[in-house]
Design brief:
By secondary structure, this protein is an alpha/beta fold. The chain has helices at residues 18-33, 66-75, 84-89, 106-113, and strands at 6-11, 37-42, 79-83, 101-104, 118-122. The chain is globular, with a radius of gyration of 13 Å.
Amino acid sequence: MANAKKLVIKVTAGADAPERCSQAFTVAAVAVASGVEVSLWLTGESSWFALPGRAAEFELPHAAPLPDLIDGILAGGGMITLCTQCAARRGIEEKDLIEGARIAGAQVFVSEAMADGTQALVY
């Protein structure tokens, strides 16, 4: 997609703010399914969803299951990134992550968010 736009989404909420959390993952999954290049950043309490099995513990009535959304994001070529500092504060290492996720810091986030044709959202 030569003129494709990129969407960078930073989600700061987890089980502590389930509607905001679910919205971020839903927007990311819908964007990927629509052919948009997506980079989803997990920070704060959403950091836990970078670990295997943790998304399955999340429940929100009338919302798509988080594991399905994550699978859709990754299957569609979306990137899931866990914030370096958030990972360190929680004792999470690269080897602990779900397949397809990575750990990266603010420099990478800023680089992605400032790229031409990119839109950024924070949840």
